[in-house]
Amino acid sequence: MKLLLPIASSIGPVYFALQEASIIWVLLWAALWNSLRWLAGWRTALNIALEPSDQPASWLETHPAVYMALAFVTSLAAFMFIHVTAYVIVRHII
Q1: Strand runs labelled E in 1-94
Q2: For the chain, how big is the Rg over CA atoms in Å?
Q3: Kindly report the CA angle at 28 between 23 and 30, in degrees rounded to 5?
Q4: pLDDT for 63-93, tens place per residue?
Q5: Global confidence as pTM
Q6: What distances in angstroms separate CA 76 from CA 19, 41, 51, 86, one per listed residue?
Q7: Which uninterrupted H or E stretch holds 2?
């Protein structure tokens, strides 16, 4: 499953590049796939963030909503960068 998701999500930028669609569609595709990834794994990430430890609680442990929002935004930025890069490469090839 960890390999299937990136392969499936990379179909979008290639398809949009071949159809000469706007880059907006690529960004929407990346946002959709990132949202699906986030919905599938938010509980695991939250449980890891809230694990009890012997050390004093950090700021992110006392504010888990901020931790989850930061995780979503950073992964969204990475997904968008990868998808736009694939889109640009395919557009330059054809």
Answers
A1: none
A2: 17
A3: 95
A4: 777 878 888 899 899 989 999 999 999 999 8
A5: 0.74
A6: 24, 14, 25, 15
A7: none
- CA distance linking residue 46 with residue 67, whole number of Å: 8
Which residues does 37 contact at the CB level (< 8 Å), separation at least 6?
Answer: 5, 75, 79
Q: What is the dihedral of CA 18, 22, 27, 31, to 10 degrees?
A: -80
Contact 29, 12 (CB under 8 A): yes
Tokens of 71: 């995780």
Q: Give the Cβ contact number of residue 67 at 10 Å.
A: 19
Place of tokens 């569609």: 25
Residue 45 in contact with residue 65, Cβ under 8 Å? no
pLDDT in tens, 17-50: 999 999 999 999 999 988 888 887 777 767 766 6
